[in-house]
Input
Amino acid sequence: MCYSLYLSTSSPEDLTKYNSELVRFRPPEPADEKWTGLLRHEHKWFVGSKSQCSCTFRHFTSPDLGFTEPLDWFPEDKDNIQATAELQRVIHALVSAREQVDCLDAWFDARPEAIKEMAVKFNTVSEKQFLLFENYHFLFE
Output
């Protein structure tokens, strides 16, 4: 059981240049079409984490708490926090360069029709607050 995270952008930039121990961009595989077909922009990427899948990012199952810094009563792994911050910085750089960006965070057995969309004004979400919501398609503005 795991998460899959996909990102698309209008930028032709090779996002593998941002790869690190905690975040890994790679082109999606044909089997990923179930998810990449929902993305809006030409250049599509699978975003893995140190676990090779996308599990070791900050994930909440619901957006009820909104974007939030790590909470004392909800312990999170330090690497998950750092990986998510690295991802946020890449998205922020793309959005700041006036590129279009969206991403989709899907639980392994989710159905594409169950994915919900969420518009995100990226300049209002700090690096420490950024996290992913299970089965959401983020449209960054």
Residues 78-96 form the longest helix (19 residues). The chain has two helices and eight strands.
